[in-house]
Amino acid sequence: MVSTLPQAILSNFLGNSPGWYKKTIVAFLIINPILLAVLDDKIGPFITGWALIIEFIFTLAMALKCYPLQPGGLLAIEAIILGMASPEAVYTEAKHNFEVILLLMFMVAGIYFMKNLLLFVFTKILLRVRSKTILSLLFCFSAAVLSAFLDALTVTAVVIAVGVGFYSVYHKVASGKKFHHSHDHAVDDGVHDLHHEDLIAFRHFLRSVLMHAAIGTALGGVTTLVGEPQNLLIAQEMDWDFITFFLKMAPVTMPVFVCGLITCALLEKLGWFGYGGLLPEKVRAILEDYDHYEEEKRTVKDNATLVIQALVALVLVLCLAFHLAAVGLIGLMVIVLLTAFNGIIEEHQLGHAFEEALPFTALLVVFFAIVAVIHEQHLFTPIIDAVLAMEPSQQPGMFFIANGVLSMISDNVFVATVYISQVKQAFLAGQISREQLELLAIAINTGTNLPSVATPNGQAAFLFLLTSAVAPLIKLSYGRMVIMAFPYTIVLGSVGLLCVIYAL
After folding, report:
1. In terms of DSSP H, where are the helices of 39-151?
2. Which residues constitute the domain of residue 427?
């Protein structure tokens, strides 16, 4: 019972998070300044910086206990107060990644207005493809191809919208309601006892499908210069165009792509690491009924809406494929077109579209504050110096490993940015040849894109999935994502490393 003001403040701190979690965050906030004060000036900021990284990863791992924005934000604010990074450095990081911020603000909202078309298309696929293995391969392959020409975050937004759509339809019926009723699919209290087992199985099914799709974004994103933000940066440093970039990466990316799809099929057949979940027949029947219901009630106006969404989707693909503008600006165009031609013109109708993306956008800026600490305190510099001191023949493999490990715990865009700038400086200083520079650029690109699937914080698309609306619905936690990504990490990492060492 809260009876005093201090008790009320403590109760309000981090809301309904468990008591042990609140105490852990408080302990982090107390430990950091002590480390900085007690340790020597030379190693204090370095050790405290790494402690901060580990603490921030903890907040990501406990995302289902408390959204990481608040505890992670407190850690970031403390780091700035302690002088480990300046507000200017955080602003610089955010400004450097402004295109990603724009993407989250507008493209994800644009996908929201396309959800009717997405649910229509993917419902047809789900109901017609009865083999779970083929369905998983289809999701993984489609996500890979789309990510190669579009953007991994955009593709992830599509996958999330589809997952939420499927789940909400079944959850509504399982709670005893009709398709046209309003319903809060985040609350299980109304789910009938007869549906509980099917709901658990359906969550298992959706987790595996969404994770295969998420892995697909990594398989495709590494192949082209528009697939991931760091790809474009590396291509600019190396003066590679679209075709040149693809061909340079192909000796590594193509074998990895094939092995990734084989892994997808094997995991579904074997049912290991949380895969293999089948779509319960009762759920399939409900989705079929929903499909029939939608067909019967669909009017000419509804068909016109689907046509407009399909046309805008085509425009979206063309604009992204030819990189006609920043992805976020294309997303804004999508919002304007879809709302203007489908009659969504009131402010409250628009507001719902931004609910999914803006919390993650805020979290991403907090993440940039942690990245600023990494940059300001030169936490990765010793690793870079050690690798550049090795024999030239050993450098590509070691760069792949170093980039992979650091991307798992940090951010692959930042790691690639730091590494490519360092090796470019080494080339300009005459320390390495142009041929060696190209080998290292390939190792950096593949190293930051492939092993980074190990953790949600390794890739923005994975972090987006973890903190999205669908993750708590299907019980997709940080730990579960790590477990489900583990076989892919081993395959993508080992095949990629072998190709970097022997195929280049």
Report:
1. 44-61, 69-81, 87-96, 98-102, 108-112, 115-128, 132-149
2. 15-90+358-502
